[in-house]
Specification:
Layout lengths: L32 H5 L27 H28 L2 H14 L11 H29 L4 H25 L2 H28 L6 H30 L5 H18 L15 H23 L1 H4 L7 H4 L10 H19 L3 H8 L4 H29 L1 H19 L5 H16 L2 H10 L6 H28 L2 H19 L2 H4 L18 H7 L3
Length: 535
């Protein structure tokens, strides 16, 4: 939910990067060839040996070698994009950039003032709002572009690559000159780049994976991304060790400029994506096949068990997939609303974690960079653990459990004063809060047809506006009270998001492969009908 550090997020190499655990479990990073090859026409699964479809005249066509190669290529390019983007972003716009903005707010900013003098924490919040407002302005046009021609999304990624290079140039000029107006302009263009790159790449990525097979690959993408976000502060710490471990302007600028130089490199994968075959029709075709399978199975179940035809409530798969008036069609709305509330709280707090440790706990530049190196690694471990827990426990169940634990940790952070315990709570809280993002993302893609993925990706980017708007409020609270007070208030906001999320416990199937039997128009589930019909 909270994971804004990707919201445009990360990735990397295969399972050889990490060795298997001693107990014979899967390696930490595991994307099997079966998962990556079971795709056809942009993600529609090849149903081989399906007994329910035997004798049917409408059987999906198997994948061609070229189509499989395109899908595998897109998946690996997405992994590379996420890793490189995470390293560049966390180096250029990580904790050192936050402290640089804090430095500008102390009177070092040059150029024409905008809105008069702004206090230090408030300036950090305002700059975040500038990026968020730009994301809001560009959200609707980007959504229309991405969904207008699903077979031309790769072209949009090439445009995004050019915009990303322009962001790097603007960032370098703004930091060298200390002109606040240029910093604002850079953040506006960064919002355009993030929105266009994120929406188009996520749509192509989802179309390259079969429905009901996304959780594992989405989790791997998130893990590799969080590792990339840890590499950025690690590079910053090494650089600061060379130029000096103090908060001097030239030291901060050196780190930010290095991150700006990495940004064009991170844009390279954008120029090599290809649109999956029939990207705009794949999910709808899959959904039609699911509807036909569901109808055939329901007829067979009615013949075997007359009670089910008579309306036995326990045999209604549709009822098993609903929570009151809410059903599968409302899943994207529930996720978007929950994420919207989460971003309100996250904006108040997350942007100020680094400043909390720098100002209140007096962390040095290398100390805050080491902390931010460990932070994503903890998230990566929690992400894999959450994905494994979701298999027997259910995706929605695991996500809600972990995010609720994050709320408890946030309340603890508002009161704990002993630094070692505070650091442990901070790291664990980050793991709980951010490990749920890939699971929720896989749920969203499973309940969203390909033709609307650009829309829902844009809606997700729109929630960044609330993140950014509440960052201003968080900055004002920090200036008038303290950072711990904002943590306390954020805990209640996160709790509200958990309540909104809770209907998904009833709607989303516990087993991921059962989602193929839940039609996107809310049709009954074939497997639930069959299993609830007695012999």
């Amino acid at each position: 939910m909270e994971q804004k550090m990707d919201r445009n997020h990360p990735s990397g190499e295969d399972d050889r990067a990490l060795r298997s655990s001693p107990d014979g479990q899967q390696p930490l990073l595991n994307v099997s060839l079966q998962d990556m090859s079971a795709v056809d026409h942009g993600g529609a699964e090849t149903f081989k040996g399906n007994e329910q479809l035997e004798g049917s005249t409408a059987s999906p066509v198997g994948t061609t070698d070229d189509e499989e190669k395109v899908c595998r290529r897109n998946i690996r390019l997405m992994f590379a994009l996420q890793v490189l983007n995470a390293v560049a972003y966390s180096t250029a716009f990580g904790p050192v950039f936050d402290r640089y903005l804090y430095y500008l707010g102390g009177g070092a900013a040059r150029g024409p003032p905008i809105g008069g003098h702004i206090a230090r924490n408030s300036l950090v919040g305002v700059t975040e709002s500038v990026s968020g407002i730009s994301t809001l302005v560009f959200a609707a046009p980007i959504a229309m572009l991405v969904d207008w021609r699903p077979d031309r999304r790769a072209r949009l990624l090439r445009v995004a690559g050019i915009v990303g290079i322009f962001v790097a140039v603007l960032a370098a000029v703004a930091v060298v000159t200390d002109v606040l107006l240029l910093t604002y302009l850079m953040l506006v263009v960064l919002g355009l780049y993030s929105g266009l790159m994120g929406s188009a790449s996520e749509a192509i990525f989802a179309d390259s994976i079969p429905r009901g097979k996304r959780a594992n690959i989405f989790t791997t993408k998130a893990i590799l991304g969080t590792i990339g976000f840890g590499a950025g502060p690690l590079l910053s710490a090494c650089g600061l060790y060379v130029v000096g471990d103090q908060w001097q302007p030239y030291q901060m600028k050196a780190v930010i400029l290095f991150g700006a130089l990495l940004t064009p490199i991170s844009c390279i994968p954008l120029f090599f994506f290809k649109d999956p075959a029939a990207a705009g029709a794949s999910e709808s075709s899959s959904a039609e096949a699911d509807n036909e399978s569901s109808a055939n199975s329901q007829d067979a179940a009615s013949e075997n068990n007359p009670q089910s035809e008579g309306g036995n409530p326990q045999s209604e798969g549709g009822r098993a997939r609903r929570c009151g008036l809410l059903g599968p069609k409302q899943v994207p709305v529930i996720l978007a609303l929950s994420d919207f509330i989460t971003c309100i709280g996250a904006g108040m707090t997350v942007k100020f974690f680094n400043l909390f440790f720098i100002v209140d706990e007096h962390f040095s530049p290398t100390e805050i960079c080491w902390l931010q190196t460990a932070y994503p690694l903890v998230i990566a471990l929690f992400t894999k653990f959450t994905e494994r827990l979701s298999k027997p426990f259910g995706r929605a169940q695991a996500s809600l459990l972990f995010f609720t634990s994050n709320v408890i940790c946030l309340f603890l952070m508002s009161g704990v004063k002993y630094l070692p315990i505070l650091l442990v709570v901070f790291l664990v809280r980050g793991g709980f809060a951010n490990s749920t993002y890939p699971i929720d993302r896989s749920i969203l893609m499973d309940f969203t047809p390909s033709s609307r993925r650009g829309l829902w990706n844009a809606v997700e980017n729109f929630t960044s506006m609330t993140w950014s708007g509440s960052a201003v409020f968080g900055g004002l609270l920090a200036d008038s009270r303290d950072y711990r007070f904002t943590f306390f208030i954020t805990g209640f906001v996160y709790a509200t998001a958990c309540v909104i999320y809770s209907p998904l416990l009833c709607i989303v199937p516990r087993k991921e492969d059962e989602v193929r039997d839940v039609a996107l128009d809310g049709a009954a589930s074939a497997e639930v009908i069959a299993s609830s019909s007695g012999p």
